[in-house]
Design goal:
Two copies of one chain form a homodimer.
Chain A lengths: L14 H11 L2 H10 L4 E2 H8 L3 H13 L3 E6 L2 E6 L5 H11 L6 H19 L4
Antiparallel strand pairs in A: 1-3, 2-3
Helix pairs in contact in A: 2-6, 3-6
Chain B binds a DNA duplex through helix 4.
DNA sequence: GTATAACATTCGGCAACGCGTATATGATTA
DNA sequence: TAATCATATACGCGTTGCCGAATGTTATAC
């Protein structure tokens, strides 16, 4: 018998799913990344630029976020465009809503988010240089 | 000059606070504990009983949850009664709401919560044997 | 005072994490 | 083909997290 682990809708979420989602949020850098992606789709170079962190650090956290299914990638030739994944549980949905509303008020996140919004807007005109 | 680190209201929350809250949720056992405490106040012996884990394990996770300010204790002679702490940020508030609503539907959590509700009710009549 | 009960803390080991540095891969450009 | 750019992964290392077992602490019971 084949188990369709991809058909998210079919499976009732378990404790492991919850745990995984929260672990995705359990790091300040990843919180910053999720906050930036709340602005829209960004490529790794944008994230590196705004976060001011070494590229491998960002890439590793993105890998972690991919594993926990909190983000998804669009690969366009040699650019990787990341965005928030569509939530697959109530908790996930709630946390994404949290990123988009509750996170405002944390000063460092606010200013970064503004930069992300501007960058997303730029990308609409000129796609990643 | 004295810094009133205790007057929570005064300080605008930072990234570290966010991180701390999420780290509190980043473990399946702690998620289970928070889920149980959503039913009301419980003593350690109740938690040990319902979780079916060794007492030191529960105690250590409770210490962690205290450190992250997600729970608070009432010590009554030789019993320790734990309850969810009053949220001190939007994110915290949102996550507690999440515990009370979004967590329903995870089967293992549901059944444990029912046991917790019953236990809380028992305690109203007969306070911790 | 001794025993016991309810919790908390410590220690030792092991796995997971986060980071810096270096390197690999794959597409693009010269 | 060689060089370069964007991104990912590997390696080594210090840190943190979790667990079981043992021990501490405080209060009640005998």
């Amino acid at each position: 018998m084949i188990s369709f682990t991809h058909s998210v809708k079919a499976r009732t979420p378990g404790l492991e799913d919850l745990d995984s989602v929260f672990k995705g949020f359990a790091d300040p850098t990843r919180i910053r990344i999720l906050n930036l992606l709340a602005a829209g789709e960004l490529c790794v170079c944008d994230l590196v630029d705004i976060l001011g962190l070494p590229q491998p650090a960002v890439s590793r956290h993105l890998a972690y976020l991919r594993k926990t299914k909190l983000v998804r990638v669009n690969r366009d030739s040699n650019f990787a465009h990341y965005r928030l994944a569509d939530p697959n549980s109530d908790v996930h949905r709630n946390l994404i809503a949290c990123v988009k509303s509750c996170f405002t008020g944390i000063r460092s996140l606010d200013s970064e988010r503004r930069r992300a919004v501007a960058r997303v807007k730029d990308r609409e005109k000129e796609p990643c240089r």
